[in-house]
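Slide 14.
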Amino acid sequence: MSDTAQRMRQVLLRLEMVGHGATQAWNASGGHSGEPDDRMVAQIVRGEQPPHLIYARRWQTAKTESSRLTILTEAEAELTSWIKRQSPAVATKSDSEIMLEDGAGHSAETAARRFGVHQAFIRRLRAKNDRDPETGLPWGSERAELASELSRSGLSQAQIAKRLGVSQQSVSRLIQRHRFRRQQGYSYSEGGSRAS
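Slide 15: predicted structure.
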């Protein structure tokens, strides 16, 4: 068997295996790459011939060595396109991010029940991420300004925390964030953008 015929045989076998979820020749150590390729299944469902059969038929009917070489090159390109398909990028979110986003607007009790965690965990997570511990909604700049204003008026952080319904640590974070944003030149009135 010629080198070109051997290469074509390997390409045809690998093209056939792509439809079954494998792209490597069988070996004793294993080597399975996953599920069948959806594109291959879709082709078959539409009644189209699988690529390996199309290229095998073209190879068998080719008369000259140059036409066989062209078919081999096309088959190799087809195989490469099947193997190197780009799977869609899946943005993964942490459990905390999911709890914050999906639990927003729900009470801490409801969110805790939904996610199978304790209410205190939900409240701490929300407060740590600048959200109202009870509703999960973002606090926004108004709350940071209010905390800073109350602090300047002489109230202790514990008193401010009680008035706002949050922990003393959350009040401390709000005041620090407000001070930092002012020092950096950010304006709350401009939607949080930097003042020029």
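Speaker note: The radius of gyration is 31 Å.
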